[in-house]
Design goal:
Layout lengths: L24 E4 L2 E5 L1 H10 L1 E2 L2 E2 L12 E5 L13 E5 L1 H5 L3 E8 L6 E7 L19 E3 L5 E4 L3 E6 L3 E2 L5 E4 L21 H14 L3 H5 L13 H19 L6 H16 L3 H11 L2 H16 L1 H15 L6
Parallel strand pairs: 8-11
Antiparallel strand pairs: 1-10, 2-6, 3-12, 4-5, 5-11, 6-13, 7-8, 9-10
Helix pairs in contact: 3-5, 6-7, 6-8, 8-9
The structure holds zinc ion (ZN).
Zinc ion (ZN) binds next to loops.
Length: about 325
């Protein structure tokens, strides 16, 4: 690797970080790990963003280095990485850490500058960069103000798990209409608006009564904003529940009990017994509940298994179940 592989991608002098200059650099104060909604819900369950092996085209995919991808980028036309942004505590993950140059990705538009930040020295052979000095792609002044080149994307990889508790906030972005870094054109979240993703995420948070995550949905340094996005999301959920209640004239019909059984099984599997029990009781009677269980089992494992289950039920009840 050349001695100075970041040549052409550097902040060179105080003039470059002068606010009155022609916009060579941008001040930045946060990094986001952005993920798809389904991955974000898993992160919440895991209580951390797990560092993983690098799998895309990168110098690092031949190493065993595990990283969490973060970026200070913002998107004018929607994110290509999903709707949910976990805002990583800047001071904890950048200040005083070892920083390395990885590569420049010219296949991206604009070019993406890739860096690795680590708490300890890496055994991987990468050149170090020193953001306290000029001549590197990042610059940090004596007031701890960080600057990056305005023209390029930055991908900053952290070599450790990021615990949810240390994220300062969770924010939401629009997903790009047609581009997705993870699933390309097969992505089911293409074009999903930030408000839709937030609504689903809030539903998940409320279903778990997850107070730690709830705190991260409010703006920083402010008392809880009664008219903020969380309120809008809760309003949307209320409208959804009212609409659904109005539509369900026969609240205990076959479809409803089928879905309630699925919910019951899900909550039973994750040890939320009270919710599981409530779902089963909402079905109203045992025969309907069992009929729904048979239908779900049939769909999952096939008729031969559901028939055996039906016979078993008949045996334990000793009466004709299906008239
Ligand atoms: Zn996507």
């Amino acid at each position: 690797m050349s001695k100075n592989p970041w040549k052409g991608y550097t902040i060179d002098s105080p003039d470059d970080i002068d606010d009155t200059s022609t916009g060579i650099t941008t001040r930045f104060g946060c990094l986001y790990h952005t993920s798809h909604l389904s991955d974000a819900l898993r992160i919440v369950e895991d209580r951390k963003i797990s560092a993983n092996l690098v799998r895309d085209k990168s110098l690092l995919n031949e190493t065993r280095l595990c990283v969490v991808w973060t970026s200070p980028n913002t998107w004018y036309h929607g994110s290509m990485y999903g709707n949910v942004g976990f805002k990583v505590d800047f001071d904890e993950f950048l200040l005083g850490k070892y920083m390395y140059w990885v590569e420049i990705m010219k296949a991206y538009n604009p070019d993406a500058i890739r860096l690795v930040v680590s708490e300890s020295k890496l055994s991987v052979d990468l050149p170090r960069i020193h953001p306290r000095k000029f001549g590197y792609p990042l610059y940090c002044d004596e007031d701890e103000q960080w600057f990056r080149l305005d023209k390029y994307n930055y991908e900053i990889m952290l070599t450790q798990d990021v615990r949810i508790a240390t994220c300062s906030r969770i924010e939401f972005f629009d997903h790009h209409q047609s581009l997705c870094n993870k699933y390309s054109s097969r992505c089911s979240d293409l074009g999903m608006e930030d408000s839709t993703a937030r609504e689903k995420f809030v539903a998940f948070t409320v279903s778990r009564i997850d107070k730690i995550v709830a705190m991260k949905l409010f703006p920083e340094n402010k008392e809880r904003d009664r008219q903020g996005p969380v309120t809008y999301s809760c309003n949307a959920l209320l409208r959804w529940i009212c609409k659904t209640s109005a539509e369900e004239k026969e609240a205990r019909d076959r479809d409803t009990s089928y879905h309630l059984i699925r919910s019951a099984l899900y909550y039973y599997s994750v040890d939320e017994d009270k919710i599981a029990t409530a779902c089963i009781r909402a079905i109203g009677n045992e025969k309907r509940a069992v009929r729904s269980l048979l239908a779900v089992v049939k769909k999952t494992f096939g008729e031969h298994i559901s028939e055996r289950l039906k016979e078993y039920y008949k045996r334990i009840k000793d009466k004709d179940f299906y008239r």
